[in-house]
Amino acid sequence: MKKLIYWFLRKYRHVTASRWIILAIDLFTLVVAFAVTDFLRLRTTVHIDWPALIVKLAAFIALATACYISIGTHRSIIRHSGLYDIYKVVLSNLIAAAILVAFNLLNNNHPIVQNRYTPAYSEILMTFALQIVAMTIMRLVLQQVYNDYVRRRRRPCNVIIYGAGAAGVIAYNALQQDRLHEYKVVSFLDDDRKKTDTALNGIRVLLPKDGLNKEYIKKHHVEVLLIAIPSIKLSLKQEIMNKGLDLGLTVKAVPHISNWINDSFSINQIQDIKIEDLLEREAIKLDNSNIVREVANKVILVTGAAGSIGSEICRQLIQYAPQKVIMLDQAESPMYDLQFELRSNEPYCHHIDRMEFVIANVKDRQRMAEVFSKYHPQIVFHAAAYKHVPFMEENPYEAILVNVFGTKNLADLAIENGTEKFVMISTDKAVNPTNVMGATKRMAEIYIQSRSTDTTHFVTTRFGNVLGSNGSVIPLFKKQLAAGGPLTVTHKDIIRYFMTIPEACNLVLEAGSMGEGGDIFVFDMGKPVKIYNLAKKMIQLSGAKNIEIKEVGLRPGEKLYEELLANKEANIPTYHPKIMRAQVRKYSLEDIDREYLELWNLMPTLDPMMLVRKMKQIVPEFKSNNSIYCQLDNPSDQ
């Protein structure tokens, strides 16, 4: 018989009971509560007035039915009952009790009414108090029975919840209601010593040092660490995440309350920790009034608009009320994607009249002249460039044509058309360059730095890698993980600086607003990250086993670490602590024009060695690394 009952429960575990069955059960418990109340009240009475009891019971049932249906206590799915469902139980019964008390008061003021049919105050309060308890217990018991005996049983996943506050309790309840997984919370962790050795839902609260250690994790077979402090400081959150990963745990987090759906939280909102979370920095606070003042009601041209940086600059600019943003790129498909995104999504779709999308290449001077003549941009953000080091090492002609002479085309046209400001996006690879790409960006810096006039101000911004940009190391590692590995690093000691794309672009806009001409601004990139350690963290986050990290050697032109300042450069602080002004070597206009003309005259040869040799003459600090051009750095080969 027991097996038959268990089979029946398992077979119909996903069937939801009819709301009318739930209502009938609630009314049955009301009858029991009424009977218990009258038994306790009348147990010493010899004569029981049955007609009066029946009339009063009917009144209780009728009034309770109306309140339960109005409030909707019967519409909940019992096995997923939560605090809101208990709230409805309490509210509906209190309303019913209040109506009966009011009716009692009314009858006391009208003696004509037969008081034998009027319920006593004690009868009302005791009945509905018992009913609240009974309805609540019924829901909790059925929920527990479902969780323990009906729901499909799986091997439980042991969890530690970091945070014993309100969010921790909400996260615990969400885990208990998950239908797809079986979670068992073994402890709560909290830094507040006052909570130590207390309990939440019967589960101990420990200090972090007592729960986040190898012995405890092994003893309790913990698999998941859930961070349930939505407003936690980023530095502390990263410290907890790293500790959990080092212990071999899967780390998850409850999002900030502002990201909860309809101000409520569910299991689906628990987020897996991503590598970007470990590299993220505290949000930079900017006084956007400078940017508003700079770009409001202006026509702005953004080159490389379909790229990672260019597209984010466009997204941010649109929200500062420019007259028009001209988005220009030579890549057709990415431009189509950007156009579709901005025209379809909030908040950009409300500013369609401020957007223009142009397919063009910056190395085509005639086409660029047409764009400047048609739109007359007042500000230019120049993000178009070739940036992949190994490709440009193999194709110096294209690197020079786009990065150097494409920039020259734009700079010259900006001056000819009276553009007010020209902001170029450079890179830390332009500092003491060891590759063709970095050298071409440095040459672009040199050219525009010399071109500032009273009417057109030229500004350069330098920063390192941005998280998630096209072709960066993190998307590459994600693809390699999806393929089962190995993860490839060029050198075990290679380090890079990282910042988020929105952060970088916000700083670009701020630096652009403060530049007065000929400035090169460098950004505070924070602490450098060892790429090998980054690969290890990504493997830990993925939960994959036996993924190899393979060292493949430095690529042509690559160096172990990047710099933001050259050997003879220094920083001057600005009013923003994250933006510094670099003191750089000045070049005479005549020397630059002569050198760049000589380089242009060499372009038709298509000879990589001749072109790179000339680049090294223009940028003396350009010393090739792990490249065929290293021989050009030997004086005997000049």
Features:
22 strands, 22 helices, single chain, 638 residues
Characterise this structure.
With 638 residues, the protein is of the alpha/beta class. The protein folds into 3 domains: 149 residues, no CATH class; 117 residues, 3-Layer(aba) Sandwich (Rossmann fold); 257 residues, Rossmann fold, CATH 3.40.50.720. 46% of the residues lie in helices and 14% in strands. It is built from 22 helices and 22 strands. Strand 9, helix 13 and strand 10 form a beta-alpha-beta unit. Helix 2 crosses helix 5, helix 4 runs antiparallel to helix 5 and helix 16 packs parallel to helix 17. The protein is elongated.
Shape: elongated
The CATH class of the largest domain is Alpha Beta
Task: Count the domains.
Answer: 3
How many helices does DSSP assign?
22
Give the N-to-C terminal Cα separation: 96 Å
Q: How large is the share of residues in beta strands?
A: 5-15%
Question: Could you say which structural class the secondary elements and strand pairing correspond to?
Answer: alpha/beta
CATH architecture of the largest domain: 3-Layer(aba) Sandwich
Query: Overall pLDDT, averaged?
Result: 81
Low-pLDDT regions: none
Q: Major sheet, described briefly?
A: 9 strands, mixed
* CATH fold assignment of the largest domain: Rossmann fold
Give the C-alpha Rg.
35 Å
CATH superfamily of the largest domain: NAD(P)-binding Rossmann-like Domain
Helix content: 40-55%
Oligomer classification: single chain
